[in-house]
Amino acid sequence: MSRFGGRLREYPWVSIDRFDRHNLRARAYFLSHCHKDHMKGLRAPALKRRLECSLKVNLYCSPVTKELLLTSSKYKFWENHIVTLEVETPTQISLVDETSGEKEDIEVTLLPAGHCPGSVMFLFQGENGTVLYTGDFRLAKGEAARMELLHSGTRVKDIQSVYLDTTFCDPKFYHIPSREECLNGILELVRNWTTLSRYHVVWLNCKAAYGYEYLFTNLSEELGIKVHVNKLDMFKNMPEILYHITTDQNTQIHACRHPRDDDYFRGNRLPCGMTSQNGTPLHIITIKPSTMWFGERNKKTNVIVRTGESSYRACFSFHSSYSEIKDFLSYICPVNVYPNVLPLGLTEDKVVEILKPLCRSYRRNTEPKYKPLGTLKRVHKTHFSDTDEDDLFDTELTSVRPKIPKQQTKSRPFKTLPCGNAERTNENTESYKVTTTYTSHKIDFMDCEESNDDDDEEEEESEQNTVEVLSHDPDATSNSSGKKHSVLSSGVASDQEESNAHLPRWDAFFKCNRIDESSENEDNFPSSAEAGGSQSLFSDSDGVSDSTHISSQNSSQSTHISEQGSQGWDSQMDTVLITSQERNAFEFSCFNKGGSRTGVSILHETTKDNQAENSRWKAMGQNQSYAYDAVHDLKSKDTEEDTETDNTQIQDVLLEVNDNSRTPDLELKKDSQSSSDFEIPLTPDAELPQPDKLHFLYKKLAAGENILNEKISPENSFK
DNA sequence: GCGATCAGGT
DNA sequence: CACACCTGATCGC
Hints:
There is one protein chain. By secondary structure, this protein is of the alpha/beta class. Helix content is about 35%, strand content about 15%. The strands form 6 sheets. Strands 14-13-15-12-18-20-19-24 form an 8-stranded mixed β-sheet. Strands 5-6-7-8-11-21 form a 6-stranded mixed β-sheet. Strand 16 (about 275) and strand 17 form a beta hairpin. Helix 14 (about 460-470) packs across helix 25, helix 17 (about 510-520) crosses helix 22 (about 610-620) and helix 20 (about 585-590) crosses helix 25. The longest helix has 27 residues, at about 550-575. The radius of gyration is 24 Å and the shape is globular. The chain starts with 13 loop residues before the first strand and ends with a helix. The chain binds a DNA duplex through loops.
């Protein structure tokens, strides 16, 4: 829980995530996300009174956060005082003291935080230096390196202070399986169960909080089963979520809640009251998402633990692990760091003691020496992680930091095509070459890294190769694109979506995340995908072996699943879904991978809208999976979605789809196409810009305009 | 009656 | 395990 008081030392006129006490006098308010512990005082009468007699006091947040906030009538009084900021769009704000007229300007940039829908970090730049407030965040390793706006040119910005989410800043939380791994584990468990019969249902025992949405949307996409929830009006303007949830209890996946839902469950009853269907009793299992962590040397990374006859715990975390935090901070390398949270049992001093070595004062003397040979591979000298840095840098810090996949250092994705000069900040040749790789590339390298730099893992070697090979398989590409296309053409564009073109959207972020997350794996922790059949997704906490119903299936299937998982990644590679019609959608999704703002997007006229979209997604920490469209399509054909109807058909098709593109990550596919740091990738979905188009872009660039501003609405891109 | 705080629960 | 949140009791305004 956040213990941040609301104010930055450097900019005391703004209040962030706290709205009581001294914050009542702030000149501007910022809300990083819509969790209650970050909204203290937000609806207090004192603040409400102040708003009533002020024209100038605003609350700044992401569009999604605004949407979620205003869904509750308790916060309606904020309506005229909320200013939404697009993610990754630096904005100048004047902080005016209404009594004295005193004024101070500050530039703020929202960066995706990956914590829950709409969640962002705030980057403030002003006369007292550059300060980053992370709010709550879950960012995989290397994600900071991919945030263009944390950089100027090829360097990381000079950041004075970071106010950091230190929820898991304790070595015991060293590793938390990636979102991708967790999602896959849950997906297979749910799949195994729900395919037994239509009376086999799953209850996801989720706490009342935003942050599970990507779980719901992905399960729904993958399995063609909507998720039953108590309320969905907060998502009324987010069709990508709305589509996958329902208030119709007649479905096989439930995330509904009841004050005494455990009692309900014990009575073989879902929280919504369902206990049978057509007179046939339901077979219910519960899955409780909860954070699981693993020590540095612990290689066990089961993301599903069986806790009883029909109950499971599944790994799920809204917050970055210890190693992710350290990766993040060491990349930023600020002068100061201030913990927003005290992990249980730790004091502030202790946390600072852990973090200080990653800050500048400690590093000055140990700055790695640059080795010229590494030039082509490096973008940010300031970022030194171990592994491949070792060939390029000497650093004494290596030993104290967790391994970071190679790719992430290469992952600054900004330039991907010959038009890279369109990119605003990274303009030198060096960075250009470096950034020819896509973000997800790191996956390959990570695997490679893992098998290389540490003793234990060998399985992963194949990954990289597979990616390469598959990514260049044109047949696969066209195949799946056909499938994908049909999907794209029918499903998504609901009335709502059309009418809410400018409203918060969800599509892309998770795609981004998936990649990012899988990249986060450390040498000791191969992702489930990487691990192939060698690792079971399940563990049996009771020591009860996989028995009876799920078990036999599980034991056989989980292995299979794992393999599928790994092959899935591979085979996904060959599923490069590109047709001209889909191109926009595709690049949209790719774009959203965290490799956003690239030459690719520019070439393709990815617009600021798309970017904003992307950013919003990122801001939400949510993702949508590739299969989304497929399911979408199927479901829409199925129209009114009688979940009672036999899902077989859907499942069959889904399986087909999944077989070809099991791993959702479009970007991965895309990434896989750029196979070398030294080559300009031939992006399959890229087209050469027409001369007039180029001319236009150059002109805009020369004029200093934002070339990402052209309008192609994401909605259109889905049609 | 309302909000803030705490304890206890999921 | 933690998290985010809810409920209920108590206190003060």
